[in-house]
Amino acid sequence: MRIEVIATDLTDAKLADQHGADRIELVTGMAEGGLTPSYGLIEEVVRRVTIPAYVMIRPHSRSFCYSRDDLDTMIKDIQTVKRLGAPGVVLGALTKEKTIDETALSLLLEAAEGLDITFHRAFDEVADQEAALKVLLRYPQVTRVLTSGGKRSALDAVPQMAKLVRLAEGTHLTILAGSGLTVESLPAFSAQTGVKEVHFGSGVRVGGKSLAPIDPVKLEALKAIVDSGM
Q1: What is the DSSP string of 130-191?
Q2: Distance in angstroms (rounded) separating the CA atoms of residues 183 and 125
Q3: What is the pTM of this model?
Q4: Parallel, antiparallel, or unpaired for β 197-200 and 88-91?
Q5: pLDDT tens by residue, 148-179
Q6: How far is 41 from 149, CA to CA, in rounded Å?
Q7: Which residues form the signal peptide (predicted)?
Q8: For the domain bounded by 2-227, which CATH number is listed?
Protein backbone atom coordinates (compact mmCIF):
# COMPACT_ATOMS: atom_id res chain seq x y z
CA MET A 1 0.00 0.00 0.00
CA ARG A 2 1.18 3.51 -0.83
CA ILE A 3 0.58 6.53 1.42
CA GLU A 4 -0.14 10.00 0.02
CA VAL A 5 -0.09 12.93 2.46
CA ILE A 6 -1.35 16.47 1.92
CA ALA A 7 1.32 19.14 2.36
CA THR A 8 0.48 22.84 2.55
CA ASP A 9 3.98 24.24 3.11
CA LEU A 10 7.62 23.22 2.93
CA THR A 11 7.69 22.03 6.55
CA ASP A 12 4.73 19.74 5.89
CA ALA A 13 6.44 18.36 2.80
CA LYS A 14 9.71 17.68 4.64
CA LEU A 15 7.90 15.97 7.51
CA ALA A 16 5.93 13.81 5.09
CA ASP A 17 9.15 12.86 3.33
CA GLN A 18 11.02 12.06 6.54
CA HIS A 19 8.33 10.10 8.37
CA GLY A 20 6.84 7.62 5.93
CA ALA A 21 4.81 9.15 3.10
CA ASP A 22 5.32 7.77 -0.40
CA ARG A 23 3.91 10.80 -2.18
CA ILE A 24 2.78 14.35 -1.43
CA GLU A 25 -0.29 16.19 -2.66
CA LEU A 26 0.87 19.81 -2.57
CA VAL A 27 -1.91 22.36 -2.04
CA THR A 28 -2.81 25.63 -0.46
CA GLY A 29 -6.25 26.45 0.96
CA MET A 30 -6.71 23.07 2.59
CA ALA A 31 -9.86 24.30 4.35
CA GLU A 32 -11.34 24.94 0.88
CA GLY A 33 -10.51 21.44 -0.32
CA GLY A 34 -7.16 22.41 -1.81
CA LEU A 35 -6.12 25.09 -4.32
CA THR A 36 -3.06 25.62 -6.50
CA PRO A 37 -0.04 26.50 -4.33
CA SER A 38 2.47 29.25 -5.04
CA TYR A 39 5.23 28.72 -7.56
CA GLY A 40 7.82 29.42 -4.90
CA LEU A 41 6.46 26.62 -2.72
CA ILE A 42 6.35 24.19 -5.65
CA GLU A 43 9.95 24.96 -6.55
CA GLU A 44 11.24 24.56 -2.99
CA VAL A 45 9.37 21.31 -2.41
CA VAL A 46 10.64 19.80 -5.67
CA ARG A 47 14.17 20.88 -4.81
CA ARG A 48 14.25 19.79 -1.17
CA VAL A 49 12.03 16.70 -0.90
CA THR A 50 12.92 13.23 -2.20
CA ILE A 51 9.42 11.75 -2.68
CA PRO A 52 7.14 12.77 -5.58
CA ALA A 53 5.03 15.90 -5.09
CA TYR A 54 1.82 16.12 -7.10
CA VAL A 55 0.55 19.67 -7.41
CA MET A 56 -3.11 20.64 -7.13
CA ILE A 57 -4.43 22.48 -10.19
CA ARG A 58 -7.55 24.23 -8.96
CA PRO A 59 -7.99 28.00 -9.46
CA HIS A 60 -10.91 28.52 -7.07
CA SER A 61 -13.24 26.65 -4.74
CA ARG A 62 -16.58 27.88 -6.10
CA SER A 63 -17.23 24.71 -8.08
CA PHE A 64 -15.58 22.20 -10.38
CA CYS A 65 -17.18 23.80 -13.44
CA TYR A 66 -14.62 25.95 -15.22
CA SER A 67 -14.90 28.84 -17.67
CA ARG A 68 -12.46 29.37 -20.53
CA ASP A 69 -10.67 31.94 -18.36
CA ASP A 70 -10.35 29.35 -15.60
CA LEU A 71 -8.98 26.80 -18.05
CA ASP A 72 -6.45 29.26 -19.43
CA THR A 73 -5.22 29.84 -15.88
CA MET A 74 -5.07 26.11 -15.16
CA ILE A 75 -3.13 25.44 -18.37
CA LYS A 76 -0.60 28.13 -17.45
CA ASP A 77 -0.30 26.61 -13.96
CA ILE A 78 0.30 23.16 -15.43
CA GLN A 79 2.98 24.53 -17.77
CA THR A 80 4.69 26.18 -14.82
CA VAL A 81 4.50 23.01 -12.72
CA LYS A 82 6.22 21.13 -15.55
CA ARG A 83 8.94 23.78 -15.77
CA LEU A 84 9.51 23.58 -12.00
CA GLY A 85 10.02 19.83 -12.19
CA ALA A 86 7.08 18.30 -10.31
CA PRO A 87 6.23 14.84 -11.66
CA GLY A 88 2.44 15.04 -11.46
CA VAL A 89 -0.67 17.15 -11.04
CA VAL A 90 -4.05 16.71 -9.42
CA LEU A 91 -7.01 18.02 -11.39
CA GLY A 92 -10.61 17.51 -12.40
CA ALA A 93 -13.51 19.24 -14.15
CA LEU A 94 -17.27 18.69 -14.23
CA THR A 95 -20.20 19.85 -16.31
CA LYS A 96 -23.23 21.54 -14.77
CA GLU A 97 -24.98 18.18 -15.15
CA LYS A 98 -22.43 16.58 -12.78
CA THR A 99 -20.64 14.54 -15.40
CA ILE A 100 -16.96 14.69 -16.25
CA ASP A 101 -16.25 17.64 -18.54
CA GLU A 102 -14.32 15.85 -21.26
CA THR A 103 -13.71 19.01 -23.26
CA ALA A 104 -12.01 20.65 -20.29
CA LEU A 105 -10.24 17.44 -19.30
CA SER A 106 -8.79 17.00 -22.79
CA LEU A 107 -7.39 20.55 -22.78
CA LEU A 108 -5.80 20.05 -19.36
CA LEU A 109 -4.34 16.66 -20.27
CA GLU A 110 -2.83 18.09 -23.44
CA ALA A 111 -1.05 20.73 -21.35
CA ALA A 112 0.01 18.06 -18.85
CA GLU A 113 1.57 15.69 -21.37
CA GLY A 114 4.43 13.88 -19.66
CA LEU A 115 3.01 14.32 -16.16
CA ASP A 116 1.23 11.74 -14.03
CA ILE A 117 -2.40 12.67 -13.39
CA THR A 118 -4.70 12.20 -10.41
CA PHE A 119 -8.38 13.04 -10.96
CA HIS A 120 -9.37 14.66 -7.67
CA ARG A 121 -12.47 14.59 -5.50
CA ALA A 122 -14.60 16.33 -8.09
CA PHE A 123 -15.28 12.64 -8.69
CA ASP A 124 -17.31 12.62 -5.47
CA GLU A 125 -19.74 15.16 -6.95
CA VAL A 126 -20.59 13.27 -10.14
CA ALA A 127 -24.13 11.96 -10.54
CA ASP A 128 -22.95 8.43 -11.38
CA GLN A 129 -19.52 7.28 -10.21
CA GLU A 130 -19.51 4.05 -12.21
CA ALA A 131 -20.25 5.95 -15.43
CA ALA A 132 -17.62 8.56 -14.55
CA LEU A 133 -15.04 5.84 -13.96
CA LYS A 134 -15.77 4.40 -17.40
CA VAL A 135 -15.14 7.86 -18.88
CA LEU A 136 -11.77 8.13 -17.14
CA LEU A 137 -10.82 4.69 -18.40
CA ARG A 138 -10.68 6.29 -21.86
CA TYR A 139 -7.80 8.52 -20.73
CA PRO A 140 -4.60 6.50 -20.11
CA GLN A 141 -2.83 9.61 -18.81
CA VAL A 142 -5.12 9.60 -15.74
CA THR A 143 -3.59 6.97 -13.46
CA ARG A 144 -5.56 7.38 -10.25
CA VAL A 145 -8.85 8.69 -8.90
CA LEU A 146 -9.02 10.29 -5.46
CA THR A 147 -12.40 9.52 -3.93
CA SER A 148 -14.32 8.99 -0.72
CA GLY A 149 -16.92 6.94 -2.56
CA GLY A 150 -19.26 9.90 -2.79
CA LYS A 151 -19.57 10.30 0.98
CA ARG A 152 -18.09 12.92 3.30
CA SER A 153 -15.89 10.17 4.75
CA ALA A 154 -14.61 7.13 2.89
CA LEU A 155 -15.37 5.15 6.05
CA ASP A 156 -19.08 5.67 5.31
CA ALA A 157 -18.74 4.36 1.76
CA VAL A 158 -17.11 0.96 2.19
CA PRO A 159 -19.40 -0.92 -0.27
CA GLN A 160 -18.99 1.78 -2.93
CA MET A 161 -15.24 1.96 -2.43
CA ALA A 162 -15.00 -1.80 -2.83
CA LYS A 163 -17.07 -1.61 -6.03
CA LEU A 164 -14.83 1.11 -7.50
CA VAL A 165 -11.73 -0.92 -6.68
CA ARG A 166 -13.23 -3.93 -8.46
CA LEU A 167 -14.18 -1.86 -11.52
CA ALA A 168 -10.66 -0.41 -11.77
CA GLU A 169 -8.89 -3.73 -11.27
CA GLY A 170 -6.64 -4.65 -14.17
CA THR A 171 -6.83 -1.17 -15.74
CA HIS A 172 -4.47 1.82 -15.76
CA LEU A 173 -6.55 3.44 -12.98
CA THR A 174 -5.87 3.09 -9.28
CA ILE A 175 -8.48 4.07 -6.67
CA LEU A 176 -6.89 6.42 -4.15
CA ALA A 177 -9.07 6.41 -1.03
CA GLY A 178 -9.24 9.64 0.93
CA SER A 179 -11.23 11.73 3.39
CA GLY A 180 -12.03 10.65 6.93
CA LEU A 181 -9.42 7.91 7.17
CA THR A 182 -7.53 7.50 10.42
CA VAL A 183 -4.51 5.48 11.41
CA GLU A 184 -6.70 3.22 13.55
CA SER A 185 -9.36 2.64 10.90
CA LEU A 186 -7.02 1.76 8.06
CA PRO A 187 -6.55 -2.01 8.60
CA ALA A 188 -10.28 -2.80 8.58
CA PHE A 189 -10.98 -0.34 5.77
CA SER A 190 -8.23 -1.86 3.62
CA ALA A 191 -9.47 -5.39 4.24
CA GLN A 192 -13.06 -4.46 3.38
CA THR A 193 -12.33 -2.44 0.23
CA GLY A 194 -9.09 -3.76 -1.24
CA VAL A 195 -7.65 -0.26 -1.76
CA LYS A 196 -3.94 -0.11 -2.53
CA GLU A 197 -3.38 3.62 -2.11
CA VAL A 198 -4.58 5.93 0.66
CA HIS A 199 -4.66 9.71 1.02
CA PHE A 200 -4.30 11.37 4.42
CA GLY A 201 -4.87 14.95 5.51
CA SER A 202 -6.20 15.62 9.00
CA GLY A 203 -5.73 11.94 9.90
CA VAL A 204 -1.98 12.48 10.31
CA ARG A 205 -2.11 15.99 11.75
CA VAL A 206 -1.88 17.19 15.32
CA GLY A 207 -5.23 16.72 17.05
CA GLY A 208 -6.78 15.45 13.84
CA LYS A 209 -7.27 19.07 12.72
CA SER A 210 -6.92 19.94 9.06
CA LEU A 211 -5.09 23.21 9.69
CA ALA A 212 -2.67 21.78 12.27
CA PRO A 213 0.88 20.63 11.41
CA ILE A 214 1.67 17.08 10.38
CA ASP A 215 2.21 14.84 13.40
CA PRO A 216 5.34 12.71 12.80
CA VAL A 217 4.24 10.18 15.43
CA LYS A 218 0.92 9.56 13.65
CA LEU A 219 2.56 9.32 10.26
CA GLU A 220 5.18 6.88 11.52
CA ALA A 221 2.43 4.79 13.13
CA LEU A 222 0.57 4.74 9.81
CA LYS A 223 3.71 3.68 7.98
CA ALA A 224 4.34 0.92 10.53
CA ILE A 225 0.81 -0.44 10.03
CA VAL A 226 1.23 -0.44 6.27
CA ASP A 227 4.65 -2.07 6.47
CA SER A 228 3.27 -4.77 8.75
CA GLY A 229 0.93 -5.89 6.00
CA MET A 230 -2.01 -5.13 8.32
Answers
A1: HHHHHHHTT-TTEEEEEE-TTSSSGGG-HHHHHHHHHHHTTSS-EEEEESS--TTTHHHHHH
A2: 26
A3: 0.95
A4: unpaired
A5: 999 999 999 999 999 999 999 999 999 999 99
A6: 31
A7: none
A8: 3.20.20.380
